[in-house]
Amino acid sequence: MRITGYGICTWTFGDLPLATIAARVATLGLDGVELLGEIEKNTAAEAKRVLDDQGLRVFSLTPLNVDLAHPDDQTRQRALDYHFALLDFAAGVGAPLISCHGAVGRIRSIATWQREWALLVEGVCAIGARAQKLGLRVALELLNRYESHLLTSTEQGLRFLAQVGAPNVGLHLDAYHMNIEEPNPANAIGAAGQRLFLFHVADSNREAVGRGHTDFGALLRALDEIAYAGPLVIECAAPGPDPFQAIKDDSSVPWVETYARESLAKLRTLTTFL
Fold first, then answer.
1. What 3-state DSSP class applies to 156?
2. CB–CB of 79/123 below 8 Å?
3. pLDDT in tens, 24-34
4. Which of 15, 115, 157, 172 is the most exposed place for a label (fewest CB within 10 A)?
């Protein structure tokens, strides 16, 4: 495979300081991170120094939970301004792309579905244009129906990209979400093709690769067939209630690290046969 490395989402470690997270990630043998866009906690220079010190790359940035499709103009403008600042941060920290998605946890429309779809298109067009000036890409993440009401499938994502019409805006697929939404996840990867910019990894239960029923052999073959050249980013969640809360108890971080080790070992084994 042509992947650029193996990473992990920093949000899964909760509120630990970035230096602590970076040290733990390096110990796990990973190549880099998807950095949560808490741009007020560290400057881009500070974050880059911390990660460089551990030999870690920043594969991508993921946004805080803002709402680009909200019908309220001020709410939507705050979300857009935040994404512009996130792009500047990404340029400073050396991240080649940012992820983008609807408000996580909002599962129904406030206005109409069609109106909010149009508002999201409008927002992503503006973000894509700003990203283009900075030489960055934007990956639109497709979430499952229990986390988002707008974009849940690759078919919808491709229709959305056609309306955005920007070559630097693509898709961000996630094996866990695909397990819920896609009739055939491997075929969905094939349909995404060169528009697939980023891929997240977790099994069907959002635990480590191998602890659920997802056919990762099929997914990795599909990624190889489309010549996917991005990272594989692990996004397993610690067990327990509330999927939007990273740290449930004192065992959460050890579980995240266990899942990361198991996933990395499985993925390396599977990719050796491609």
1. helix
2. yes
3. 999 999 999 99
4. 15
